[in-house]
Write a structure and sequence with these properties.
3 domains; 8-stranded antiparallel beta sheet; 3-stranded antiparallel beta sheet; 56% helix
């Protein structure tokens, strides 16, 4: 009988809350519907293999816990709805429309927070926004950043982790050598390749999320919290390098590739636990490990003032009016987000293989299968890998990648260092061509040094007759496209179909030529340049 009574009381409390705050609950549910396309985009990234944001599923629950920590302050903070929330929603509406049309992650993030804070301000007021601000902002840790930024950070993190791990192994008496992000040694059963998932960036992003959460709930002065938070950055690099070193020890001690692979698969969890243990140990040394799991109001003015409003009836009328306006705005946003086709949902690139020379002069060729990892990374591109051999048995590897979506390309420094190469003597210059037309192509060359040989790489990107020497130039060009497309969309919204056609016609092609060094002097560079000119001369659609 007691259990039934208790269940009935709980149901009555839930019913009371729903009846009292049904407008807010309705708007909250509608907010989730509005954000469904964004959440689906983020979820796909969280679920990717070796995702940098696999912790994203936990973040909403961690944010709810931070709100629960503030439960006393929340219940005792006066509710004073503000029409400024409507102004923020009005600003969020066009931003959300642009974000949905252009699928820009930075705008996804911006519209998510502007809409959410607009709703909070509209129904609860400034004081409540101040109380829940940090827990709500914590949601930013589940939001992926631009892939170009991730690529750049990953490349640097790979090299740093590999270099530090190499030093650790050498200092402890093991003979190892680093080539790019690959560590080799006579006693190792296999090379230690510090690939993208092992760069330490995944560990660092997860560690930053946890450290923010941890520093929020501990009792400590702000300067101590700041020190603990900043410790996450060097700690992440150090522990990841130590993890790679431990994998090396397993290779030297056990001597089997299977043991190395098995320890590698579990070492990520060991690294994360080590980070948490060290961070907690530092916090203990700083005497700030006590948790504040039930924050109290900091001033008398915040107590016993729930729903302070001059007139309760006026309060209800105000909330009802705000509710009606918010519903109209959010329904409009939900329609835009779920019904409008994004401008940058682009098709895969297309190489016309009939235009690519299979042989020319005394050069013949054979196609090489592109490995699965490269195909997965560059899945938006149409790839061709072809090896050319001349009568003197000299070889040049040509790699082409055509893409409309610029995620079809990535910085070649990543794949070069990932293949065990050190990049030296990088140079950007103008390559003069005379056929099929006269022009100067902006290109990049660098020398590769690896364990058994050295090589030369020449590469550039093309769109029609425009050439770009670096991958970063494409990211800058993409920003220019976004701005010009946005201007055209705003000034001529009725021509959106024409804009779509124009965007889908922007195909880029990446040309990469690589060969081993033979003479070891300038003649090797002259050779690859000469080959590139002959190749261009015989490629029927070059510059179109």
């Amino acid at each position: 009988m007691g259990k039934s009574s208790h269940g009935s009381d709980l149901w009555q409390q839930v019913k009371s809350i729903v009846l009292r705050y049904w407008q807010v609950l309705t708007v909250g549910a509608l907010f989730i519907i509005v954000q469904l396309p964004v959440l689906a985009n983020w979820r796909a990234i969280w679920d990717e293999q070796d995702s940098y944001y696999s912790h994203g599923w936990l973040v909403p629950f961690m944010a709810l816990f931070l709100l629960w920590v503030n439960r006393k302050i929340i219940t005792q903070t006066p509710i004073k709805p503000s029409w400024y929330g409507l102004l923020i929603l009005a600003v969020a509406a066009p931003i959300h429309s642009v974000a949905m049309l252009m699928e820009l992650r930075v705008l996804y993030m911006l519209t998510f927070f502007t809409t959410l804070f607009g709703i909070l301000l509209l129904f609860f007021g400034w004081r409540m926004v101040k109380v829940v601000g940090v827990p709500v902002l914590f949601l930013i840790t589940m939001m992926p950043i631009a892939s170009g930024v991730i690529d750049s950070l990953t490349a640097n993190a790979q090299l740093v982790s590999a270099a530090v791990a190499t030093r650790f192994l050498q200092w402890t008496g093991y003979e190892v050598t680093r080539y790019g992000n690959i560590i080799t040694g006579d006693g190792l059963p296999c090379d230690l390749r510090v690939a993208s998932p092992c760069s330490g960036l995944r560990l660092l992003i997860s560690l930053i999320t946890f450290t923010w959460f941890f520093t929020y709930v501990i009792i400590a002065p702000k300067w101590k919290k700041a020190i603990l938070f900043l410790m996450a950055f060097p700690l992440g690099v150090f522990i990841n390098s130590l993890r790679i070193t431990m994998i090396g020890y397993v290779g030297f001690w056990i001597g089997t590739e299977e043991a190395v692979r098995s320890f590698h698969n579990s070492s990520g969890y060991i690294g994360l636990l080590l980070c948490f243990a060290i961070l907690f140990g530092i916090a203990k040394l700083m005497r700030c490990v006590d948790m504040d799991l039930e924050r109290e109001p900091t001033s008398i003015s915040q107590t016993n003032r729930l729903l302070r409003y001059p007139d309760a009836e006026a309060c209800r009328r105000s909330i009802n009016t705000k509710f009606a306006v918010a519903i109209v705005i959010l329904v409009g946003l939900a329609y835009i987000g779920n019904m409008v086709e994004p401008l940058y949902r682009l098709p895969k690139g297309k190489l016309d293989r009939t235009m690519i020379p299979a042989k020319f002069g005394d050069w013949t060729s054979k196609d090489i299968e592109v490995d699965k990892e490269t195909r997965d990374i560059l899945q938006k591109g149409d790839l061709l890998s072809r090896l050319y051999t001349n009568s003197s048995d000299r070889q040049v590897h040509v790699f082409l990648d055509a893409g409309v979506d610029l995620s079809a390309f990535h910085d070649p420094h990543l794949c070069m260092t990932g293949s065990g190469n050190n990049i030296v003597r990088e140079h950007q210059f103008e390559l003069l061509i005379t056929q099929p037309y006269s022009d100067k192509l902006r290109v990049t060359s660098f020398e590769l040094v690896r364990s058994d040989n050295t090589g030369i790489v020449l590469y550039w990107y093309m769109r029609s007759k425009d050439s770009y020497a670096l991958t970063n130039h494409l990211w800058g060009l993409r920003r220019q496209f976004w701005i010009s497309d946005l201007k055209e969309l705003v000034t001529n919204p009725m021509n959106i179909d024409e804009l779509r056609k124009k965007i889908k016609a922007r195909q880029f092609t990446w040309y990469r030529f690589s060969t081993d060094r033979y003479a070891g002097d300038k003649s090797d560079m002259q050779f690859i340049e000469s080959f590139a000119r002959e190749y261009i001369k015989n490629k029927k659609d070059f510059g179109r």
